[in-house]
Amino acid sequence: MSFETILINTLMLLALGVPAFLLAKFKLVSSSAVKPLSIILLYVCQPFMLLKSFWTLEYQPDLLINILLSLAFSVACTILVWIVSLFVFHKKNLSEDKIYQFASMFSNCGFFGLPFLAALIPDNGYVILYASMYIVVFNVLSWTLGIYILTGDKKFVSLKKAFLNPAVVSVIIGIPLFMLNVKMPSQVIDFASYWSMMTSPLAMSVVGIRLADMPFSLLVKDGKAFAASGLRLVVSPLIMWVILLVVGVSDANLFNSMIIASAMPVATTTVVFAELYAPESSAGVTSMLLSTVLCVVTVPLICMLTLI
Questions:
Q1: Range of the domain at 117
Q2: Which residues contact 49 (CB under 8 A, 6 or more apart)?
Q3: This prediction's pTM
């Protein structure tokens, strides 16, 4: 896949955020709109996108093996990136460094990765299916290991939130129906399609509104945000690439979905958690927005060099 093709898809996806960016700049939309849009994304659009991938694929034993492999690869990559981040952001008592560790580990695989995969590899439920496993791992680890990294206290770790969230529940519902080859009525699939198609514009609108509120000078002056973005956008997909090569993965759908999921910008969850546990720091929003801007260059390069 050529650099130009991937670059165009990346730019088209980010361009979806321009209207919201302009509306926010002209004060027609306030930053308070981010919360309801994010709730719709999290509780409606993303679950229907995941469920649609289960409902439109035929079950095969090889698919179940690939699902389990995608879970294992996602865990391994996230943990290895965290270990690398410990050497880069090593001040244990500095909340900012903890936020940057978190930012390095967790990608925007749901709000950015799934729309990007849908645009780059259209009408391919397999890549969405495998990427959804990355999202499951993201949710479980962010609410457990991620929270512990930010707080240093086990009392804040929430197993309930780790497993009872929209993405994980969608997979829990979807996998048994998928393995039993339960066929959904076409009207149900169409209903899911309408909501899943809204994922891209809504997700990019959230990014656009946040960018409109962020002073550009704050983005370019934060050296640690650049370091976190480098770990997230370059080191993470390269670690995933090495894992896939060592294991000998030859399935293009599995290989490419794992690379792309791991190459996405810093998760928006970083901003939410940073506001909860270190409200005095701008590290969360800075790293998220900076990595989103930089991914215009890094994602096409990573994809061109590593996809099969």
A1: 3-21+34-306
A2: 114, 118, 128, 192, 195, 196, 199
A3: 0.88
